[in-house]
Automatic annotation (TrEMBL), chain A:
Residues 99-288 form the ABC transmembrane type-1 domain. This is Cationic peptide transport system permease protein. InterPro entries: BP-dependent_transpt_permease, MetI-like, MetI-like_sf, OppC_N. It is a multi-pass membrane protein. The lineage of its organism: Bacteria, Pseudomonadati, Pseudomonadota, Gammaproteobacteria, Alteromonadales. The keyword Membrane applies. It comes from Pseudoalteromonas denitrificans DSM 6059. SUPFAM superfamilies: MetI-like. Its main location: membrane. GO terms for biological process: transmembrane transport. The chain crosses the membrane at residues 31-54, 101-126, 138-159, 165-185, 220-241, 261-288. Keywords: Cell inner membrane, Cell membrane, Membrane, Transmembrane, Transmembrane helix, Transport. PANTHER family: OLIGOPEPTIDE TRANSPORT SYSTEM PERMEASE PROTEIN APPC, PUTRESCINE EXPORT SYSTEM PERMEASE PROTEIN SAPC. Belongs to the binding-protein-dependent transport system permease family. OppBC subfamily.
TrEMBL record, chain B:
It is a peripheral membrane protein. This is Cationic peptide transport system ATP-binding protein. Transmembrane segments: none annotated. It is found in: Cell inner membrane. It comes from Pseudoalteromonas denitrificans DSM 6059.
Amino acid sequence: MAKFNFIASLNGEELNKSPLRQLWRHFKSNHVALVGLWLFIALTILATLAPVLAPYGVNQQHSDALLLPPSWDDAGDVRFILGTDDLGRDVLSRLINGTTYTFGLAILTALITTLLGVILGVFAGMSKGVRSSILNHILDVTLSIPSLLLAIIIIALLGPGLLNTVWAIILALLPQYIHSVRNLVVQELSKDYIVAQWLDGANSWHVLSRGIFPNIYEHIVVIFTMSLSTAILDISALGFLKLGAQPPTAEWGAILAENLGFIYLAPWTVALPGILLFFAVLATNLVGDGLRTALKKRKAI
Amino acid sequence: MQPILKVQALSKTFKIRDRFFLRKKFKVLEDISFCLSKGETIAIIGETGSGKSTLAKILAGAEVSQKGQILLEGKVIEDDGKRKTSCRDIRLIFQDASKSLNPGITIGKTLNEILLMNTHYDAAQRQESIKNNLLKVGLLAEHQDYYPHMFSGGQLQRIALARALILEPKVLVLDEALSSLDPSVRAQTVNLLLKLQQETGLSYVLITHHLSLVKHMSDQTLVLDQGKVIEAGKTQALFIKHKSKITQRLLNC
């Protein structure tokens, strides 16, 4: 039997079977999730290359073309594919630039949250007794408040602004994050191979880096996608409420709020950022969901 | 001859939750004493909940006792609940090999980690040692690039064995390590263990339900019931002649 495996390994088949490869195989078989991933990648490219890709400047005004409908309309102009708003700004350029703010900033927010959340979560998970108990109960209290409400409270203290929004969302997402990571770590700590590792003479750092981390980082990615979708919604919601990004910043939520007055006159100025927001959250959730199912499938084998 | 492992009056109590904030004391082990010579096997049998597994964990250092001493080659390694040296001469093999190996990293990495933490070998020496140990338990050197989920149950138990043997221990504690295997694989593993015992003079502490294994492998037998040793002696003699009813019941089933 061993020999048989060995031959297979020479063909390179067995080498493909690392847990990560397995995960990718399961993920790949889920087509909806794959579409989500492509959408996600497209949005990321848009967010990073926005100034290069946008045909016009964000605040470049065209006084000859005010409230122009999208180009497929009879009254449209091919220069402005998705039309213009009341100040004659190209909607397409503004939306592309908005990706950087809403989507890109949300990724940045979620990344910082991940960094802080993993550090604190691991600390909470590894500590025992009174210390962990206190941390847990404080977290439980903050968990009972919805993240958007918590963000609004923090904004009320810090004052409106895009950067303050980011901090507020980080602080609002953190309790949930720490909680999830803590649960993962505690779950791992009770497993046999961790006990075996302690018996091998490992210290806490070894157990953490070699024992726990290789087995939970995929779960952390899942938590990351969940907090990312929350972050996108929160950034745009705060922008819409005029607590976050201030006009003329091209943040999707802010664009929506700015043009709300023209909803009957120029519905494209409101509908397009809404649709983009929908796709951004959908893509993130599809990727997260696909990852979660793939992880579950891998565990079942 | 000096015994390799000597356990003297080992006791352990757990505090378990009673009503409200009260804690109740629960004696898991009480006054356990036994000796084990080099190249010998001692079998520990008993019903579920008799403290066998706790004893195994204490011997291996995964838990601490409260009273009593454990001596290894005449040196005290645990005295009244204080583990004196972080010693790797007593190694534990777990009940379920698939759970005792880290699923996220390859076998080679797991073994390499152990050597890194406990020896001063350089990379080439570590590689050599990993290779030798895998060959010793009947696997191939190429298996070190495999992840645990790619092995069968019997192979995993062999890897667990390699993991225990890589630090050249003197005593191996087998906590129901053979129970989860099917008969033919179990026979293979038993033969492997006996061969290793002959070659290197390892001592085994065998904790099991299988009486045929006890008969086949062990020199001495210890019968535990509710944390107490109720009978002990040479396996052969014990199977023929025993005093207590509990032993009778265990042997009958």
